[in-house]
Amino acid sequence: MLNKNVNNTLDSATKAQRIPVTNISTPTSSRKIHIREQKGQFQQLRTGMNSLLVALFFLLPFISFDGRQAILFDLSQQQFIFFGTTLWPQDFTILAWVFIAAAFLLFFVTVFWGRVWCGYLCPQTAWTFIYVWIETRIEGNRNKRYALDKAPWGSDKLKKRVLKHTAWGAIALLTGCGFIAYFVPARELYIDIFSFSASFWITAWVWFFAICTYLNAGWMREQMCLHCCPYARFQSAMFDANTKTVTYDAARGESRGPRKRNEASALGDCVDCNLCVDVCPTGIDIRNGLQYECINCGACVDACNQTMQKFAYQPNLISYTSENTLAGKAEPFYESYKFLAYGIAALIMISVIAVDIYNRNNIELNVLRDRQSLYRETLDDKVENSFTLKIRNKTQQTRLYRIYVSGNSAYRLMGEVDLKIHPGEQLDYPVTVVALPELLDSARNDITFTVAEQHNYSQASQESSFFAPI
């Protein structure tokens, strides 16, 4: 129940109502958490970053490069297209290194700023705040939403709930389309989905991710951060005394207590307004100390600074600060072994990615010997071996190639040696190599096939064996 006692803490003129501490939602409470909207510099930063990332999420699949979708995981063709560069399954070690490097960079940032990923960049946070914004526009502020939850069902409540869930569903469906647009051509996808002409599996995957979005952002919300996200559980292992996290300055704030503005008080600066709890997406009280549920979104910092400004107190009673800063210590962050460890690991991973990309070849060559016979003797006393060259053009342009053989001056390649291969095509090309037996060193001889791109330095080679009579 909302407390109807007069609250003179924030503005004695408006006599705003407040919720007592005992009834505030906490992560262990069964009561649904309704977030109070908050403005401030950190919320502007969070909103701006979330908006940018959501916009990029939806718009990137519509960017074209060289006449094709710039970013596309084409599962049917088993290729990943990234701005003209095509990665095949054998190239996916590059993606693995990218994810590993991203993880170490995340750990590296966490050493300094705690869970800023969760507060400012995490998709769960971004979509949750989108859903909360829609909910607030339709059902009203925090107190009105609590009152609506308790109100009996009627036409007004039904209308608001239907409108809210319809808007949530529309956002969820667009999100499902946005995600699948990275796997099938985006321009066709939206038309097919909304014209009900998409295939069964594409439709099923779109609706699967739409339902996941609706449940995660609309219903589970903080439960994902509290119980499902593994990052919340192991983040503390990366913290040290120099990590800047959202922290309450208890030495300055206690003992807390309500008061009127401009009223002399022997209490600490905390006026016990509970706004820091009302605006928290996970419903915690930051005044109880550092908690793993805190996602470092800075909402309580903005709320507390707003209150401090009204009471003409110093700002940053709650702020991004470190344990050493609060204790008056000034230890250089670069002396932390975690700083060095994560920094070096991230640099190593980035170097591995650079080397892997540098050594990546646009031609793939596999040489298969004829399984029917080791060799054949011709009527003119020569020996021939048959091979199949599997040549893949890993680019998005048609290329001209030439085949060479080396290993012995006696080898002669029969047939056409100049080839044209279309983008992404794998060509199975049979070739025959002949040689005079007397010019060979033994019954089994080394032979190397080379496929080189004409007018370019790209080439691929593979060794095999050439057999002859003993």
TrEMBL record:
Domain 4Fe-4S ferredoxin-type: 260-289
An example Gene Ontology molecular-function term: 4 iron, 4 sulfur cluster binding
SUPFAM superfamilies documented for this protein: 4Fe-4S ferredoxins
Cited Pfam families: Fer4_18 (PF13746), Fer4_5 (PF12801), FixG_C (PF11614)
Record-annotated membrane-spanning stretches: 47-65, 94-114, 167-184, 190-215, 339-358
Keyword Electron transport: yes
Keyword Hydrolase annotated: no
Keywords, in A-Z order: 4Fe-4S, Electron transport, Iron, Iron-sulfur, Membrane, Metal-binding, Transmembrane, Transmembrane helix, Transport
Cellular component terms per the entry's GO annotation: plasma membrane
Name of the protein in question: Cytochrome c oxidase accessory protein CcoG
Species in which this protein is naturally found: Shewanella pneumatophori
Gene designation: ccoG
